[in-house]
C-alpha cells in the first residue's frame, strides 16, 4: 500500500473524502425541493455528520409542509383581499344602481306629470301608443334574446366549471403521482447511496457504463432538440392563430358596429317619417278647426250686421213717427176746433210711441246681449287659441321627452353592444386560458415522458450495477491478480473522477430543468387561479346583468301603468270636449231661435203698426166731418142775433 501511495502522490485520502462529500451533496441537491439553493445544502451536508442523513427525509417533509402552509396562507390572504375588492366593487355598483333607480323614479314622476297634462290630440296619442307598444315589444324581444344568451352563457360557464373540476382532479392525481415519484426517488436515493459506496471500489468497469451514458445523453439531446423544434412550431402556429383570431374579432366588432348603425339609421328614418305624417295630420286638423272658427266668426258678424240694420230700420221708423208727431202738434196748434180729436190722436200716438220705445229698449237689450255673446264667443275663441298654443307647447315638451327617451334607448343599445363585445373578449380570453392550460398539460406530459425515460435509464443502470456487483465479487476473488494492475486502475480512477464531475454537472442540469418544471407548474397554478377568479367575476357580472334586466322589467311595467293612466285621462278629456261641443251647439241653436223670434216680433210689430195707422186715418177723417158740422151749427147760432 505504501508503494501505491508513493506511486500516486496526487490522490490522497483527503481528496477521496472530498469527492465522496461532493457526490453526497450532489445527490441531496438532486432530491431537494425546488427553489432551495444547492450550495447551502452541500455546505450543510459537509458540516453535518453521516448519522444525520437519516433525518434529512423528515426535514424535507417538514420544509415541504411549511412551504405548503405558507402557500395556503398566501392564497387565503389573496382570496380574502380579492373578496374584499369584489365586495367593495359590488357595493359601488349597488349604490350606482340605487342612484339609477332614484333618477328613474324622478323621471317616472316627471312622466306622470307630463301625462296628466295631456288632454287633447286623441289620434296623435293613438299613434304614439302604437309606437310605444312597438317599442315595448322590441325591448321585450331584446330582453328575451339577452335572457336566452345569458342562459346559454350559464350553460357554457357550467361546462367550463366541469372542465375546471376535471382539471383539478387531474392536477390532484398529478400531485399524487409526483408525491409517489418523490417517494420512489427517495428510495432510489438510498439505493444510490449504497451504490455510491460500492462505486469507490468499482473503477475498471465504468467505461462501458460511461459509453452507454454518453449514448443516452446523445439520445436525450436529440429528443430535446426535437422538443424545442416542436415548441417553436407550436409557438409559431399559436401566433398565427392569435393573429387570425384577432382579425376575426375585429371583423366581428366592425360587423356588429355596422349592424347597430344600420338599425339606428333605419329606426331614425322610420320615426322621422312617422313624425312628418303626424305633423301633417295635426296641421290639417288645425286648419280645419281654424276654418270652422273663421266660418263661425263670419256668421256671427253677419248676424251682428243684420241686427244693426234692423236697429237702423227701427230708428228710421222712430224718426218718421216723431216727424208725424210734430206735424200733428203743428195741426193741433193750427186747429183748436179739433183739439179733442188731436188729443185723442196724441194719446194714441203716445201709446204707440211708448210701445215702440219699449220695443226699442227690448231690441237694444237684445243687441247688448248679442254683443255680450259675441264678446263671450270671441273670449272663447281666444281661450281656444291659448289652449291650442299651450297644447303645442305641451306637444313640444312631449316630443323633447320622447327624443330624450329615444337617446336613452340608443345609449342603452350602445352600452349593450359594448357589453356584448366585452363578453366576446372574455369568452376569447377564457378560450385562450383553456389553450394555455392544455399547453401546460402537454408540457407536463412531455416532462413525465422525459422522467419516464430517465427512470428507464436508471433501471438500466441498476441492472448494470447488479451485473457489476456480480463482477465485483469475481474481482474480489481475483484481487490478488489485479494488484499488479493497480497503477493502471488509479489512472482510470482519475479519469472516472473527471467523468463523475461531468455526470454531476449533467445531474445539476437535470435538477435545474426539474426546478423550471416546478416553476412552470406554479405559474400554471397561478394562471388557473386567475382563470377561476375571472370566471367568478363573469358570474358576478351575469348576476348584475340579471338584476339590471329585472329593473328594466319593473320600469317597463311602470311605463305601461302610466300609459294606461294617460289613456284614461285622454278618454276623460275626449268626453269633456264632446260635452263642450254639445253645449256650444245648444248655444248656437238658442242664438238662432232668438234671432228668428226677434225677426218674427219685429215683423208682427211692423204689421200691427201699419194696421193701427190705417185705422187712425179712417177715424180721423170721420171725426173731422162731424166736427165741421158742429162748427157750422155754432156759427149759425152766433150770427142770428
Strand content: under 5%
Structural Rg: 60 Å
Number of strands: 0
Residue share in helices?
over 70%
Return the string of H and E elements.
HHHHHHHHH
Quaternary state reads: single chain
* Low-confidence regions: 1-10, 23-52, 613-641
Q: Termini, distance in Å? A: 228 Å
Number of H- or I-type helical stretches: 9
Anisotropy-based shape = rod-shaped
The assigned structural class equals mainly alpha
Largest sheet, described in full?
Answer: none
Summed over residues and divided by their number, the pLDDT gives a mean of 68
Keywords: Coiled coil
Describe this structure as you would to a colleague.
There is one protein chain. With 641 residues, this protein is mainly α. The protein has a domain at 102-314. Helix content is 94%, strand content 0%. It is built from 9 helices and no strands. The protein has helices at 2-7, 13-30, 38-47, 56-117, 122-199, 206-334, 339-477, 479-482, 486-639. Helix 2 runs antiparallel to helix 5, helix 5 packs antiparallel against helix 9 and helix 7 packs antiparallel against helix 9 (486-639).
